[in-house]
Amino acid sequence: MRATFGVPHLTTHVLDATVGAPAAGVDLVLGTVDGEVLATATTDADGRAALGPDVLPRGDLVLRFETGAYHRSRGVPTFHPFVVVAFTVSGTEHLHVPLLLSPFAHSTYRGS
């Protein structure tokens, strides 16, 4: 069962498509579009992380995934040194930003 939060709370799940497994050890930075850092985290053994203040500010935020460092740690060349996902906080719902990752492509969507 998914946790329920009364205020915006951000989670992510990073999967490495090249090995068909969670991407553990991906560093994350949550920030404003102006560059203010709100929180940092690292994905766990299941490729998951929760981050951010208890109350996310309304408006546009960015979640930066340090994918280049992740691939380098595995000895894999990569095209993307990092992936930035921009999104808008407009209410109090739980926000989930998953990332499907490979060395030369990525995809994301609004999760639940």
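[next item in queue]
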Amino acid sequence: MTATVQPALDGSVPEPRQTKTQRQAEDYEAWLAEVWPRFIAAAATGRTFTCYEIADAHDLPQPPNPQAHWGRLMTLLQDEGYVRKVSWACSSRPTTHHSGVRTWRGTAAARKAAA
């Protein structure tokens, strides 16, 4: 079965939409090694961010188990003293329909480590 494209009112056929493909890591440890420095750098800025904002800005791969591993990453960063919970915001991830997500901010220790 092939998908059909609805022509515009003037009869022209629009270009197919280009969707962003996202890599998915197969190994948790390799994924963690790739994304960890990006989140440490984000924490060092001291600004408030969501997990998705950092992942999207740096085109980071999905972990082997996205439902569990993104939250685990943020818990590890918090346990190591790099980030702290700030508040909640509406997600900018296109597939979440603006559901609530945790916001994070880097700690003074994260800013010192970057200096």
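[queue empty]
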